[in-house]
C-alpha cells in the first residue's frame, strides 16, 4: 500500500502511542523488580525507581529461606498441578459426549451447565454446601468445588464439534473404543484448546486466594497468595531484620519493602515463565472456541 | 413397553455406554456444587437456624429484605456499588476498543506482536499481587509514584489507600492497566477478519486513514462490541469482589464497602454469621443483575440486530 505523508505521520504517532502503552504496562513491574534487588537504605531514602540501587540478592535469600514462604509455595504448586489436571480431565470427559449429536439428553445437560453461568446460589448457600460435604479446612476444598467451569466446557465442546467425524468413524472401524478414540484422535487434534484451558485453570489455581479466606483457617494450608496478602497488607512477617537496620522502628518497617517486592516477584515468576510457551496457543484457542458460539 | 425400552437402550445407549459414563461425574458435581446452593437460596426467606438446617428453618417471608432496605447502610452500599461499576464500565468498555483500533491500523507486524504480548501479560497476575504492587507504587516514601510526586511537587504524597476519594480511581485505572490488552483480543480478532480489499478500495477513492477506521473498521467490530456491552451491563452489580476486598481498609471503607463485601462481612466473619440476612442481600444483588441483563438485551435487540438471545 502506498502511504501519503499524513499517513506516514500517523503511523509514527501510532508507534509512539503503542510503545508508550507497552512501556506503561511494564513500568510497575520494573519498579517492583528494582526494589527487590535494592538495599534497604536505598529504598528507605527513596532513591529506587526503575533501577536497582546497591544491587543485592539479600531480600530473595531471606524470602526463599523462610519456612512460611516455602510451605505456601508448596501448597500453591500442589494445588495448581493436581487441580489443573482434574479440571482438564473432567472438562474433556464432559465436553466430548456433549459434542456428539447422538448422545441422548445432551441438551438437558447443556442447559444445566449454561444456566449456572446466569445464576448461582451465592456465597452463603455455597459455603453451607461446602461445609456439609466436610471439605472445610482440607486441601481438597481447593480442588473439588471448582472442578468444572461452565465457560471452559462450552469452549471445549465447540472445539470438539469441529473435529472431522470421518476421522473418528475410521478409528471406530479399526476397532477403537470411544475412550481410545478420544485419547488417540480427538485430544491430539485439540491441543490448542486444551493448552488454553490448561493455562486458564493453572493461572486460576495459582492466583486463587478467596477460597482460602472462605473455607480454610489452618495456616499450614495457606497458599502463596494468602501469604503475600498477610505480608503486604498487614505487614505480617516472621522474617527477622537483624542486619543492623533494626536500630529504630522506622527503618525496620521500611526494610520490609524490599522483602515484599521480592515475595511479589518470586510468586509471579512461575506464571511469567510458562506464559510465553502457552501464549501462542491461547489466542487461537479462544477464537476457535467462541466463533461457533 | 418394557421390551421397547430395553431395545432402545440396547440400540441407542449401549454402543456408546462409555460416553454416558463420562457424563456422570461432572453432572453429579454440577448438581452438588451449583444446584444444591441454588436450592439453598431459600434461606433468604427464612430465619436460618443451624440445628434445623436449610429445609427445617422457619419461613419469615420478606423480613430479611425489609431489614436490608431499612438499614442505614442501604443507600451507601447501593451508591458505592453502582458508582464504582458504572465508572469502571465507562472507562474499561471503550478503551480496549480504542486500543484494538490503534493496534490494527498499524503496519509493523513484529512490533505489533510485541506490544500485544506485553499488554496481555498483566491479565495473568493475581489480584493479590496487583494490589500489592499498587500499595508499593503509591507508598509515599518508597514507591515510584510517591517519589515522582515528591520530585515534582516537593511534597510528600498523601497515602492513596487511606483516602476514600482515591479508592475508585485506583480501582478503575489499575483495572485498565491489567485488562486493556486482554479485553482487546476479541476486537483484534474481529478486525483481522476485515477484507483487506475494502481498505484498498477506500484508499483509491481517497478515504483518509481516520475515515477508513470510522467507516470500515468500526462497523466490523460493532456486533462484538454490542455483545460485550450487554454482558458488561448484565454484570454491573457484580463488581470485582476480590479486588475491592483486598483494597479495602478502615480508612477508605466509606467508599469501598460494596454489596458483595458486605455480604461476606455479614455472613461469614466471626461474630456475625447472619446467614439468612447475607443470602437475602446477595439474592437482591443477583436479581438486579438479572433484570438489567434482560433490559439491555431487549434494548439491543430493538436498536440493533445483535443480542444474546
Automatic annotation (TrEMBL), chain A:
<dbReference type="Pfam" id="PF00528">
    <property type="entry name" value="BPD_transp_1"/>
</dbReference>
<keyword id="KW-0472">Membrane</keyword>
<feature type="transmembrane region" description="Helical">
    <location>
        <begin position="181"/>
        <end position="203"/>
    </location>
</feature>
<keyword id="KW-1003">Cell membrane</keyword>
<comment type="similarity">
    <text>Belongs to the binding-protein-dependent transport system permease family.</text>
</comment>
<dbReference type="InterPro" id="IPR000515">
    <property type="entry name" value="MetI-like"/>
</dbReference>
<feature type="domain" description="ABC transmembrane type-1">
    <location>
        <begin position="73"/>
        <end position="277"/>
    </location>
</feature>
<feature type="transmembrane region" description="Helical">
    <location>
        <begin position="139"/>
        <end position="160"/>
    </location>
</feature>
<feature type="transmembrane region" description="Helical">
    <location>
        <begin position="108"/>
        <end position="127"/>
    </location>
</feature>
<feature type="transmembrane region" description="Helical">
    <location>
        <begin position="261"/>
        <end position="278"/>
    </location>
</feature>
<keyword id="KW-1133">Transmembrane helix</keyword>
<feature type="transmembrane region" description="Helical">
    <location>
        <begin position="12"/>
        <end position="34"/>
    </location>
</feature>
<protein>
    <submittedName>
        <fullName>Carbohydrate ABC transporter permease</fullName>
    </submittedName>
</protein>
<keyword id="KW-0813">Transport</keyword>
<keyword id="KW-0812">Transmembrane</keyword>
<dbReference type="InterPro" id="IPR035906">
    <property type="entry name" value="MetI-like_sf"/>
</dbReference>
<feature type="transmembrane region" description="Helical">
    <location>
        <begin position="77"/>
        <end position="96"/>
    </location>
</feature>
TrEMBL record, chain B:
<feature type="domain" description="ABC transmembrane type-1">
    <location>
        <begin position="78"/>
        <end position="296"/>
    </location>
</feature>
<keyword id="KW-0813">Transport</keyword>
<feature type="transmembrane region" description="Helical">
    <location>
        <begin position="218"/>
        <end position="237"/>
    </location>
</feature>
<keyword id="KW-1003">Cell membrane</keyword>
<feature type="transmembrane region" description="Helical">
    <location>
        <begin position="84"/>
        <end position="106"/>
    </location>
</feature>
<feature type="transmembrane region" description="Helical">
    <location>
        <begin position="118"/>
        <end position="138"/>
    </location>
</feature>
<feature type="transmembrane region" description="Helical">
    <location>
        <begin position="170"/>
        <end position="190"/>
    </location>
</feature>
<comment type="similarity">
    <text>Belongs to the binding-protein-dependent transport system permease family.</text>
</comment>
<dbReference type="InterPro" id="IPR000515">
    <property type="entry name" value="MetI-like"/>
</dbReference>
<protein>
    <submittedName>
        <fullName>Sugar ABC transporter permease</fullName>
    </submittedName>
</protein>
<keyword id="KW-1133">Transmembrane helix</keyword>
<dbReference type="Pfam" id="PF00528">
    <property type="entry name" value="BPD_transp_1"/>
</dbReference>
<dbReference type="InterPro" id="IPR050809">
    <property type="entry name" value="UgpAE/MalFG_permease"/>
</dbReference>
<dbReference type="InterPro" id="IPR035906">
    <property type="entry name" value="MetI-like_sf"/>
</dbReference>
<keyword id="KW-0812">Transmembrane</keyword>
<feature type="transmembrane region" description="Helical">
    <location>
        <begin position="275"/>
        <end position="300"/>
    </location>
</feature>
<feature type="transmembrane region" description="Helical">
    <location>
        <begin position="20"/>
        <end position="45"/>
    </location>
</feature>
<keyword id="KW-0472">Membrane</keyword>
Amino acid at each position: 500500500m502506498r502511504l501519503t505523508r499524513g499517513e506516514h505521520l500517523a503511523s509514527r504517532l501510532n508507534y509512539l502511542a503503542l510503545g508508550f502503552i507497552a512501556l506503561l504496562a511494564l513500568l510497575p513491574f520494573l519498579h517492583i523488580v528494582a526494589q527487590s534487588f535494592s538495599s534497604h537504605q536505598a529504598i528507605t531514602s527513596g532513591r529506587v525507581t526503575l533501577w536497582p540501587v546497591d544491587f543485592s540478592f539479600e531480600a530473595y535469600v531471606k524470602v526463599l529461606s523462610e519456612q512460611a514462604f516455602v510451605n505456601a509455595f508448596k501448597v500453591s504448586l500442589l494445588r495448581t498441578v493436581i487441580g489443573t489436571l482434574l479440571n482438564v480431565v473432567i472438562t474433556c470427559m464432559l465436553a466430548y459426549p456433549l459434542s456428539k449429536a447422538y448422545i441422548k439428553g445432551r441438551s438437558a445437560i447443556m442447559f444445566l451447565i449454561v444456566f449456572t453461568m446466569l445464576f448461582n446460589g451465592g456465597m452463603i448457600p455455597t459455603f453451607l454446601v461446602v461445609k456439609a460435604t466436610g471439605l472445610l479446612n482440607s486441601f481438597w476444598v481447593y480442588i473439588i468445588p471448582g472442578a468444572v467451569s461452565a465457560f471452559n466446557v462450552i469452549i471445549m465442546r465447540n472445539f470438539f464439534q469441529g473435529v472431522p467425524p470421518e476421522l473418528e468413524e475410521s478409528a471406530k472401524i479399526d476397532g477403537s473404543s470411544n475412550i481410545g478414540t478420544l485419547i488417540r484422535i480427538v485430544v491430539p487434534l485439540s491441543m490448542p484448546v486444551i493448552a488454553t484451558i490448561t493455562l486458564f485453570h493453572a493461572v486460576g489455581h495459582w492466583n486463587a486466594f478467596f477460597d482460602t479466606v472462605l473455607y480454610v483457617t489452618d495456616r499450614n494450608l495457606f497458599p502463596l497468595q494468602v501469604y503475600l496478602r498477610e505480608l503486604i497488607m498487614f505487614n505480617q512477617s516472621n522474617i527477622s531484620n537483624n542486619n543492623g537496620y533494626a536500630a529504630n522502628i522506622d527503618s525496620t518497617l521500611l526494610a520490609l519493602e524490599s522483602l515484599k517486592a521480592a515475595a511479589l516477584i518470586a510468586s509471579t515468576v512461575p506464571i511469567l515463565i510458562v506464559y510465553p510457551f502457552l501464549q501462542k496457543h491461547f489466542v487461537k484457542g479462544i477464537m476457535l472456541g467462541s466463533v461457533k458460539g | 413397553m418394557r421390551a421397547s425400552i430395553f431395545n432402545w437402550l440396547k440400540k441407542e445407549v449401549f454402543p456408546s455406554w462409555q460416553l454416558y459414563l463420562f457424563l456422570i461425574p461432572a453432572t453429579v458435581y454440577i448438581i452438588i456444587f451449583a444446584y444444591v446452593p441454588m436450592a439453598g437460596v431459600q434461606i433468604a426467606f427464612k430465619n436460618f437456624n443451624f440445628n434445623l438446617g436449610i429445609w427445617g428453618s422457619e419461613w419469615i417471608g420478606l423480613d430479611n429484605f425489609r431489614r436490608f432496605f431499612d438499614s442505614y447502610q442501604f443507600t451507601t452500599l447501593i451508591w458505592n456499588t453502582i458508582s464504582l461499576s458504572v465508572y469502571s464500565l465507562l472507562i474499561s468498555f471503550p478503551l480496549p476498543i480504542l486500543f484494538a483500533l490503534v493496534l490494527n491500523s498499524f503496519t509493523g507486524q513484529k512490533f505489533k506482536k510485541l506490544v500485544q504480548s506485553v499488554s496481555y501479560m498483566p491479565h495473568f497476575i493475581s489480584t493479590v499481587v496487583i494490589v500489592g504492587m499498587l500499595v508499593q507504587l503509591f507508598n509515599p516514601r518508597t514507591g515510584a509514584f510517591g517519589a515522582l510526586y515528591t520530585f515534582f511537587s516537593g511534597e510528600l504524597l498523601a497515602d492513596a489507600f487511606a483516602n476514600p476519594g482515591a479508592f475508585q480511581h485506583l480501582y478503575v485505572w489499575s483495572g485498565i492497566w491489567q485488562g486493556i490488552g486482554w479485553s482487546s483480543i476479541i476486537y483484534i480478532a474481529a478486525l483481522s477478519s476485515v477484507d483487506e480489499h475494502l481498505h484498498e478500495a477506500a484508499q483509491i477513492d481517497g478515504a483518509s486513514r481516520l475515515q477508513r477506521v470510522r467507516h470500515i473498521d468500526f462497523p466490523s467490530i460493532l456486533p462484538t462490541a454490542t455483545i460485550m456491552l450487554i454482558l458488561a451491563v448484565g454484570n454491573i452489580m457484580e463488581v470485582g469482589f476480590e479486588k475491592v476486598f483486598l483494597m479495602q481498609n478502615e480508612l477508605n471503607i466509606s467508599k469501598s464497602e460494596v454489596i458483595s463485601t458486605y455480604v461476606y462481612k455479614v455472613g461469614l466473619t466471626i461474630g456475625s454469621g447472619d446467614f439468612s440476612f447475607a443470602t437475602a442481600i446477595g439474592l437482591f444483588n443477583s436479581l438486579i443483575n438479572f433484570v438489567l441483563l434482560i433490559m439491555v438485551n431487549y434494548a439491543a435487540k430493538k436498536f440493533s440486530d445483535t443480542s444474546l438471545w
